[in-house]
């Protein structure tokens, strides 16, 4: 299905929980967030129904997000059922990796195609600081296991001034000998990060200034990343620059939050309540169609009067 600007919308990001086992500083306040009750989030069967309806409208790719999706009870079964939905060609997951070691084999058997690992530092002390207590070593072991399993892996690194810019070369070096995609993401003014963005924002251009990379064509239609690689690299380096270089004209996605709100645009507070429709047996398909058709032409991040959205990123889904 296409929206009113002739963009093909074939990608659904589905948040399965608003809870997380880390407390990353740019993602949530130190005191945490007000969590939804079990009744107020999508049930397993409701998520499957949404995916089936979305697939009938042209959605081909689903990414499961959170919070941290691996803390959702029954996540392996959910992966298995979504992968079996007719029309779904690719199923991926964004995770911090803390629980991945115990679930990796089951997730692969269930049909998960790729892991997107959120990792902003390779320094154990910094990791502990950023995540407010997390341990890095189990995450590094998971990377090794993912590579051993020959599973597709992307590592997402949020660029944070004064915190991890001196590690750019170390992250890029991961792509030299391994078929890993390392993607550097500009810090977006969402929720808690809106308090950081002015002082700690670093443009993705900084990566190109620090490392000699050559541009390459992306094989992913609608990908927000511009891809590069080292001359002798087995993997790729992606730059996702929503602030310095908007990619709205190629946006191919919609988001559904764990509490059942469809968000046509990440950077807008506009949301449509699917949960209420599902539980009242009302027309969900028409509502999803309308949400896709009404996707805005572009976000307002660079507008002088832009107001950061109200929700924290953890409440929306990465």
Q: Specify the oligomeric state.
A: single chain
Overall spatial form: globular
Structural class estimated from helices and strands: alpha/beta
Strand content: 15-25%
CATH superfamily: Aldolase class I
CATH architecture: Alpha-Beta Barrel
Sequence stretches where pLDDT stays below 50 over 5 or more residues:
none
Report the average pLDDT across residues: 89
- Give the neighbour order of strands across the main sheet: 7-8-9-6-5-4-3-2-1-10-11-12
Radius of gyration: 19 Å
Give an overview in words.
With 318 residues, the protein is α/β, with parallel strands linked by helices. The chain has helices at 44-56, 75-83, 100-110, 124-130, 137-148, 168-177, 197-200, 205-210, 274-279, 284-293, 313-316; strands spanning 11-15, 61-65, 90-95, 114-118, 152-159, 181-186, 214-215, 226-229, 236-240, 253-256, 261-263, 272-273. The chain has a twelve-stranded mixed β-sheet. α2 (75-83) packs parallel to α3. The chain is globular, with a radius of gyration of 19 Å.
């Amino acid at each position: 299905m296409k929206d009113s600007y002739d963009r093909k919308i074939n990608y659904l990001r589905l948040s399965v929980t608003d809870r997380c086992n880390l407390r990353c500083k740019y993602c949530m306040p130190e005191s945490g967030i007000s969590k939804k009750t079990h009744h107020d989030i999508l049930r397993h069967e409701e998520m499957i129904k949404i995916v089936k309806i979305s697939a009938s409208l042209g959605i081909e790719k689903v990414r499961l997000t959170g919070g941290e999706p691996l803390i959702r009870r029954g996540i392996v079964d959910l992966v298995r059922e979504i992968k079996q939905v007719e029309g779904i060609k690719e199923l991926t997951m964004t995770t911090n990796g803390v629980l991945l070691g115990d679930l990796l084999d089951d997730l692969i058997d269930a049909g998960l195609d790729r892991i997107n690992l959120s990792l902003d530092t390779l320094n154990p002390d910094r990791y502990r600081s950023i995540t407010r207590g997390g341990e890095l070593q189990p995450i590094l072991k998971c990377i090794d296991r993912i590579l051993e399993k020959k599973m597709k892996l992307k590592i997402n690194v949020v660029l944070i001034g004064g915190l991890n810019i001196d590690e750019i070369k170390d992250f890029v070096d991961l792509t030299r000998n391994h078929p890993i995609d390392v993607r550097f993401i500009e810090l977006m003014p969402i929720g808690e990060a809106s308090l950081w963005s002015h002082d700690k924002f670093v443009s993705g251009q900084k990566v190109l200034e620090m490392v000699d990379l050559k541009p390459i064509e992306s094989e992913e239609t609608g990908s927000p990343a511009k891809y590069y690689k080292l001359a002798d690299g087995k993997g790729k380096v992606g730059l996702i620059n929503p602030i310095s270089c908007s990619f709205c004209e190629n946006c191919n996605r919609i988001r559904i939050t764990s509490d059942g709100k469809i968000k046509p645009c990440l950077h807008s507070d506009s949301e449509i309540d699917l949960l209420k429709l599902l539980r009242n047996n009302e027309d969900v398909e028409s509502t999803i169609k309308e949400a896709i058709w009404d996707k805005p032409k572009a976000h307002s991040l660079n507008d002088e009067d832009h107001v950061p959205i109200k929700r924290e990123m953890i409440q929306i889904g990465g």
